[in-house]
Amino acid sequence: MIPCEETRSWHASWISAGFCHLNWQSPALPAPYFRKEFNCSAQGEAVLYLCGLGYYELYLNGKKVGDRVLDPVVTQYDRRARYVEYDLTGLLKKGKNVIGVILGDGWYNPSTADCWHFDKVSWADYPKLICELEIDGKTVLASDDSWKCLRREGPITFNALRNGEFYDARKELPNWSSTGFDDSGWENAELIPGPGGVLTLQTMPPCKVTGTVKPVRTFPAANGSVIYDMGGAYTGWARIRVRGEAGAVVKLRYSELLNADGNNIDTSNIDQLVKSGEFQTDRYTLSGKGVEEWEPRFVYHGFNFVEATVESGLAEILEVEGRLVRTAFDSIGGFECSMPELNRLHQLTRRSFEGNFTGIPIDCPHREKNGWTGDAQLACETGLFNYGLAESYAAFMQTMADCQRPSGQLPGIAPTGGWGFNWGSGPVWDAAFIVIPWNVYLYTGNHSLIEMNYEPMLRYIRYLGTLADRRHIVKFGLGDWCHCDPSRMVDACVTSTAYYFYLTTLMAKCARLLANREDADELTALAAEIAAAFNDAFYHGDGTYAKGEPTAGAIALEFGLCPPVERRKAAAQLAKHMETRRCRADFGIVGAKYVPRALANNGYFDTAFRVLTQPGYPGWMHWLDRGAGGLWEHWIGTASRNHIMYGDVAAWMTQFLAGIVPDEKHPGFSRLTLRPFAAEGVDFVKAAYRVPAGEIKVEWEKRKGSFFLKTRLPRNLKGVAHLPDGSRQELVGGNGSFHCPL
């Protein structure tokens, strides 16, 4: 279910610790603490509403409330901020109670200079909150200037998302959120303006710590530190246990790589775009009180390795663990087969998808943490085949809409401080605004996301028309990004124009779905004109498009640009090209999605399978051979080692190997189409996927020259299975068993 944006009337005021905002004052100050002691006589239904920017932690009577982290989800703050609703029924005591809140800077008060100018965003301000408590519908507590705050003396002395968090345990505040605490030295909070946008309920799943990993090995570094290898590309932070003298400092640095000698961490592949402060560095100053345990609150990092150093004083590092953080959406799909390499690739894809969803879908968890729209749209089918994402995607689409200019233009990252409109965007990236709502409908059957965003989506199509020349050719935008050989990359005008057609076609379908017939007819006619222009400009009549690049042919086939009478030739040329290149990945991120799909959908499944599984560079198996802990940004691995933009491979496995095929005639898999391919070298496949009707389970195996298929479907679900010999079998709810010769 995708809820509408819910707002409420507030009796509370926005408050902050009242920093003086002078030019000489650093924007990065200690995290402020807030507390309010109040009497509670009623014991009814208690609901607390809270928005704390940038991030917050909520405490009640000395204990943290819930297990949420990095809350609330980042938004375009001058357009929208999100509040969280807490059910405190049964948690309040009769008599005195204390609400406590710690605020972190997050994205609201970014102090780090970076390439995207978030340090100059218009909304930036010192952390602030608004809070209200209702019991049986009556307001009993509202944030105002009677709340007490600690401005500068708290233990979180520094926190910045692109740098790290510093904590001084000597400044800890025992019982600060409990009754009886002496807050006479604290100051009163100040009433201040809100962030400027509407305040809406956060309905998507929060970020949580979803796992803890222990090092697979530990070894000394050349600089005297100790390096902890966590065994994979993860998102989150380290939790440490230490003991030592008061004032001793332990420094933690995070990296994906080691240097060439393997004896120091190396961040040179990911640190070049952060322009101030220490990159991915946390510090903990010991209190000297026995064994101490600590982990950050308001930052996260991307890492395979953690370097721990006793920077000053005497201390012993007893333990370092990796804490894994992501949006806590449900896992609803799974895949397994007899080929260990494919299983490993599927696992790494899931790891990178999860680690690159921290409230919003991001490109990477270390260098940028930005909501790159192109990465999000290219990986969304993998997401929808594996996770319950409707609410999370709805929130991201709202952020994209909040970023949209009146002209319809969209930035390449969302949210944005103004960067990404004139570079880093274009149809392939902006496609997220239409492709994601459409795929949410296709996979779940719920069209409310299309309905909520229809007008801004249509406005974007109109905007694309202003970028097109008189022939409907669009030259603006990023194209088949991160090709292994830029000289072989298809021109951006090919991908941008193809996406112009594709998005116009999808928008026509959306219009028809919502019974907007006039829009549908207009968009259908426009799509036909774009298709004619595309083929006139880029098709050569021999099955090849543009300069013969596989991405050009693949998107022509997959988007429906290739005329029906030319499809066989185009598919044959695409397969020939890939076979000539020994099925190496002769494409960037657009081709990584559409070349395997176009081949499999047009009779060349074996070639598509070899594209995914051929060893050597460039290709997915090359990453596995190099010991990848996640999906990489470049085929060669010189940049980020945790990107999701090549991640459609997991969706491909579910759709083409397991055979679970999305069908726009039956959205939400209301009628199931199974079309499993019996790939050479694969002896069995098992897949599970939860659709609105219930869980689908598919298993097939090869045995004694025959293909055996087993299904388990929800009771009321029907469908059809297309077996490898071309036969059709009707599917009904419950268990099914079928076979055919190979």
Could you characterize the architecture of this molecule?
Its EC number is 3.2.1.40. Residues 223-311 form the Alpha-L-rhamnosidase concanavalin-like domain. Residues 664-735 form the Alpha-L-rhamnosidase C-terminal domain. This is alpha-L-rhamnosidase. It contains 14 helices and 35 strands. By secondary structure, it is of the alpha+beta class. It has four domains: 15-203, Sandwich (Jelly Rolls); 210-327, Sandwich (Jelly Rolls), CATH 2.60.120.260; 333-657, Glycosyltransferase (Alpha/alpha barrel), CATH 1.50.10.10; 672-741, Sandwich (Maltose phosphorylase, domain 3). The strands form six sheets. Strands 6, 12, 13, 17, 18, 19, 20, 23, 24, 25 and 26 form an eleven-stranded mixed β-sheet that branches. Strands 1, 3, 7, 9, 10, 15 and 16 form a seven-stranded mixed β-sheet that branches. The mean pLDDT is 97.
Task: Describe, in short, the structure shown.
The chain contains 14 helices and 35 strands.
Indicate the topology:
Elements (H helix, E strand, L loop, with lengths): L14 E2 L16 E8 L5 E8 L1 E6 L2 E2 L3 E2 L10 E8 L7 E10 L23 E8 L2 E5 L5 E3 L5 E5 L3 E5 L18 E2 L1 E2 L6 E4 L5 E7 L3 E4 L5 E19 L4 E7 L1 E2 L6 E2 L14 E5 L6 E3 L6 E12 L2 E13 L5 E5 L2 H16 L17 H14 L3 H14 L23 H4 L1 H13 L3 H20 L24 H22 L3 H22 L11 H10 L7 H14 L8 H13 L3 H9 L6 H6 L23 H9 L2 E2 L10 E3 L9 E8 L2 E10 L2 E8 L5 E4 L5 E4 L2 E8 L1
Parallel strand pairs: 7-16, 13-23, 29-33
Antiparallel strand pairs: 1-9, 1-15, 2-8, 2-11, 3-7, 3-9, 4-5, 4-8, 6-17, 9-10, 11-14, 12-13, 17-26, 18-19, 19-24, 19-25, 19-26, 20-23, 20-25, 21-22, 27-30, 28-29, 30-31, 31-32, 32-35, 33-34
